[in-house]
Amino acid sequence: MLEIEHLTKRFGGNTAVNSVSTSIEKGKINAIIGPNGAGKTTFFNLISGVHKPSEGTITFEGRDITTLRTDEVARLGIARTFQATTLFDKASVLDNLIVGHRLRTRSGLIDVIFGSARLKEEERVCREKAREALDFVGLAHLENRVAGDITQEERKRVAFALALATAPKLLLLDEPAGGVNPEETLGLAELIRKMVKHDFTVCLIEHKMDMIMSLADKILVLSYGEKIAEGTPAEVRANPAVIDAYLGSDHADV
Ligand SMILES: Nc1ncnc2c1ncn2[C@@H]1O[C@H](COP(=O)(O)OP(=O)(O)OP(=O)(O)O)[C@@H](O)[C@H]1O
After folding, report:
1. Which of 12, 32, 39, 237 could be 17's S-S partner, Cβ–Cβ 3.0 to 4.6 Å?
2. Same-domain check for residues 65 and 188
3. What pLDDT sits at residue 252?
4. At residue 103, what are phi and psi to the nearest 5 degrees?
5. What backbone phi and psi angles, to 5 degrees, belong to 192?
6. Domain end point (choices 141, 167, 193)
7. Do 175 and 246 share a domain, yes or no?
8. Cα-based distances in Å from 59 to 9, 22, 134, 231
């Protein structure tokens, strides 16, 4: 579904992603792990158009998307969530979804503001999609709740709904279970499985090893920007390079 060839990103003298080649497989739960600073978020930023690669290519369903902007990538069907879920805390959950949808699929804020005033029909469709997405993530009952009043786990679900409302084919989830308790983590893992059952392809970054090992079909391991291993959870767990990378960092629990 997504083919990555020799992807490299340099920030000055620092190579955050170094000649990584991999693929994200359709209909699967793909995961990216690696110690802090390994280049995971940069990798997502490259795919979603936030950063332009220094070298390499990204091909989505046969189309070269290497230099596309974020809104262009979103319109082609790649959605993402962020480590921190930024919401308009004084607006309702539903309004957050409606505005979020516009921000993800339009090129600028002006377009968002004037677009929403002009195109009523589009707004209606957008509202409907937002409601469907909220229902999918199990938060239909919170539609009118002020976003500032919901829990961290509910914010994570809203982040999923924001991504789903753009009707993506591929979802990039950056630490979907960051900052939530173990029981809530199980609930979020269940929701990720549900996404895949409904034909979404998922790629997630996560530090919670138990979750990744039980959830992922395929894992890519990055360390200092380089791919050091790739395979099933069992293959990755048994790989000496992975064990070394984790023992040399704060995360010795792979
Ligand atoms: N916009 C940027 N400008 C300069 N350097 C950056 C930028 N973004 C990331 N980096 C650097 O690139 C490297 C990889 O960072 P990145 O955030 O991608 O790692 P990560 O694996 O997501 O880490 P974490 O698990 O801590 O979130 C780090 O050395 C970081 O300082």
Report:
1. 39
2. yes
3. 46
4. -65, -30
5. -65, -40
6. 167
7. yes
8. 16, 11, 30, 21
Same domain for 37 and 62?
yes
Task: Give the chain's domain count.
Answer: 2
How many CA atoms does the CB half-sphere of 61 hold within 13 Å?
Answer: 9
**Residue 197's domain spans which residues?**
1-77+169-254
Average pLDDT per block of 10 residues along the chain, 254 residues long: 97 96 96 94 96 97 95 92 87 88 60 59 79 94 93 93 90 93 94 96 93 95 96 93 75 50
Query: Are 154 and 221 within one domain?
Result: no
Q: Give Rg (Cα) of the chain.
A: 18
What pLDDT does 6 receive? Answer: 98
Sign of CA dihedral 235, 5, 250, 51: negative
**pLDDT single digits (tens) 37-69:** 999 999 999 999 999 999 999 999 999 999 999
Q: Which of 18, 33, 41 to mutate to test the pocket of ligand 1 (most atoms within 8 A of CB)?
A: 41
Judgement on whether residues 221 and 110 belong to the same structural domain of the protein: no
State the complex-level ipTM. 0.95
What's the CA-to-centroid distance between 126 and ligand 1, angstroms?
Answer: 34
| CA 84–ligand 1 middle distance (angstroms) | 15
DSSP H helices, 29-170, are: 40-47, 70-76, 93-105, 109-118, 120-136, 152-164
Single pTM value for the model: 0.88
Atom of ligand 1 nearest to the CA of 38: 21
Quote the pLDDT of residue 16.
97
